[in-house]
Amino acid sequence: MKEKNTGRVAEVSLGATTAEGGTRTTTIVVGGDTALPFHHFEGEVPHRPVVAMEVQDIVPSWPEHLGKYFRDVWDKPGEWARKGVDVYGADLIYLKLDGIDPEGANRSAADAVAVVKEVLQAVGVPLIVVGCGNTEKDNEVMEAVAEAAAGEKLLLGNAEQDNYRTLTAACLGNGHSIIARSPLDINICKQLNILITEMNMPGNRIVIDPSIGGLGYGIEYAYSIMERSRIGALQGDKMLSMPILCTVGYECWRAKEANSPEEEVPEWGTQETRAIMWEATAASAMLQTGAHILLMRHPQAVALTRKAIDRLMQPNNY
Fold first, then answer.
1. Which of 37, 57, 55 is nearest to 47 (CA)?
2. Distance, C-alpha 66 to centroid of its chain
3. Residue 299 pLDDT exceeds 90
4. Disulfide engineering: 14 pairs with which of 126, 160, 272, 291, CB 3.0-4.6 Å?
5. Which domain covers residue 297, as residue numbers?
6. The pLDDT value given to residue 216
7. How many CB atoms sit inside 10 A of residue 282's CB?
8. For the domain that residue 96 is a member of, what is the CATH number?
9. DSSP string covering 138-203, please?
């Protein structure tokens, strides 16, 4: 017995080549599925999930067993991005503008634009750019970033239910796609997509961020929300048919299992190995329930996840 679905996940294209008005050397399309994740025997899974490696505009406070891979470049966002792509095989770059936080470095919109331009010049892959989480500052900065990178077809975030208008308008006016972020609530997820599309944003320029939990921290609830979204899309619900993005790296690396020293919990094993597996296993779970874009940090977790994607994309039309 095979399920035949009437709906499909929308395809979202990220990045623009010179011929398309941008400067990217490669572009990425996510989505387009007409079946449950990797059910090749029931429909189409036309585009493989992709991995975005994180870059920040300030030096992060990451533990040594993660930071050692980037310490030589993490004060230079462009070089950091280049290392993620050329050395560790990132499909695209996720640039987190934590430096603009008013309670932190409080960098200006001009500073943020300079960092975005630096990363765009350093790599040819598509770029995801998100703010610091402060509503007022994010609105100011992301509007400037959208304008400065017009035509590049960035993926910009985060639009939320109480703060989506400014970012939606900036994306519409400058040719970018948008991340619609909801707090693990399928009703809010759907309502936010309705609100954004009512501003004339096409559904094929929206990516859902359901606010996942890391492995062991509510991941089963995130799994069920994502599963319901995918089933809704396949049943023809256009407001749930957008591709899904998961912030795996952020969620996993703030967990004690990824950070607790070996001497405190020797029964948990080697700290770095434990942390790598924590991130890779969480990524695997998200793949199985329908993630299209995984935001990750540790190079070895990225390698394991890319290997898993390779195997999951093999035909199984038996």
1. 37
2. 19
3. yes
4. 126
5. 11-312
6. 86
7. 29
8. 3.20.20.20
9. HHHHHHHHHHHTTTS--EEEEEBTTB-HHHHHHHHHHT-EEEEE-SS-HHHHHHHHHHHHTTT--G
Q: What is the DSSP letter of 57?
A: S
b/e per residue 171-204 (b: at least 16 CB within 10 A): bbebbbbbbbbbebebebbbebbebbbeeebeeb
**Residue appearing with tokens 């009512």:** 198
CA distances from 311 to 38, 227, 315 (A): 10, 21, 9
Write down the pTM of the prediction: 0.97
Six token digits for residue 217: 């921290």
What is residue 143's predicted lDDT score, i.e. its pLDDT?
98
Domain presence at residue 21: yes
Nearest alpha-carbon partner for 77 in 51, 107, 103:
107
Mean pLDDT over the full length of the chain? 96
Is residue 228 situated within a structural domain? yes
Domain membership of residue 308 (yes or no) is yes
Residues 81, 74: Cα–Cα separation, whole Å = 9
Quote the DSSP letter at residue 119. H
Q: d(Cα 23, Cα 232) in Å, to the nearest integer?
A: 36
DSSP state at residue 163: B
Q: Tell me, yes or no, whether 214 lies in a domain.
A: yes
Cα 206 to Cα 138: distance, rounded to the nearest angstrom: 18
Does the pLDDT at position 318 exceed 70? no
- Into how many domains does the chain fold? 1
Q: How far apart are CA 318 and CA 314, in angstroms?
A: 12
Instruction: Calculate the CA dihedral of residues 97, 103, 106, 109 and round it to 10 degrees.
Output: 50
Contact 155, 177 (CB under 8 A): yes
